[in-house]
Amino acid sequence: MSFRHQYVIGDLQGCYAAYLKLLELLNFDPAQDNLWFAGDLVARGEDSLNTLRHIKALCEQGAAATVLGNHDLNLIAVWRGVAKLKSKDKTAPIFAADDCDELLEWLRHQPLLAYPDEHTVLVHAGIPPHWSIDEAAGYAQQVEAQLQSSLWQLDRLLPNLYSKEADEWHTDIEGFTKMRAIANYFTRMRLSKQDGSLEFSFAAGLDEPMPEGFLPWFEWQVPRTRKILFGHWAALKGEVNLPHARALDGGCVWGNCLLAYRLSDGQVITSSEQCPKS
Ligand SMILES: [Mn+2]
User: Fold this and answer.
1) Taking the C-alpha atoms of 115, 119, 53 and 269 in order, what is their torsion angle to the nearest 10 degrees?
2) d(CA 124, ligand 1 centre) in Å
3) What is the Å distance from ligand 1's center to 9 Cα?
4) pLDDT digit string, tens, across residues 26-58
């Protein structure tokens, strides 16, 4: 199927009004156009429930696709009783809704990595410097298989996806440690070393001092066969635009904007609609 336009949209975080405004700006038509989402569909914005419902419906009619972010994984963990609902996340209405189970069943079947077209790859946080894109796709599938498995298997996986300290990646890493390391690269990474070591405390902008030995993951010089489109790092405000990496989280939920990257020409369309304060 060929689309009129395809756009990759950065972190929505439940900013439903800003999302609808962006669709209006794009003149989005689900019969002709296609959307890709960089994950973190839900959390701090004013209406995560309707954001999730809207995107699920679009995906089911073949007009959209998404990858999972850290807030999406957290929503699944809260659903399964593995994580506590954080008060700053405005996601309680999802768990009170009649269609909660349908929404979460759908969400856990979404991938960690997707190919919007032959030139790009989409992930929530990034791809570490010590993995090729093909290797990354293989690792993504290993975690996706467990997320999409039986609820019994899902409930074994979820508590193991969390730890304060980042795990070291090595060739014989296995089991849940490996699953957690993979999920951390795809959904939480900002700074890394060239060997893939991670640092989770830094979330500031690029002009702030960084811990010794670490760089933003996309600054390690690695030949890439596709441009990596990513969200997650709101402090970048979508301003990182390298030949091999493009930031798309405009920090909408923090009072900035929502970004849509047009796949055909790389143009970025910005919606500055402010989120209602809740
Ligand atoms: Mn995130």
Assistant:
1) 170
2) 7
3) 13
4) 999 999 999 999 999 999 999 999 999 999 999
Q: Report the predicted TM-score, pTM, of the whole model to 2 decimal places.
A: 0.97
Q: What is the pLDDT of residues 134-152, one digit of tens each?
A: 999 999 999 999 999 999 9
Say how many Å lie between the CA of residue 188 and the centre of ligand 1.
6
* pLDDT tens digit sequence for 221-272: 999 999 999 999 999 999 999 999 999 999 998 888 999 999 999 999 998 8
- Gap from CA of 68 to ligand 1 centroid (Å): 9
Span from the CA of 2 to the centroid of ligand 1 (angstroms): 30
Measure 32 CA to ligand 1 centroid, in angstroms. Answer: 29
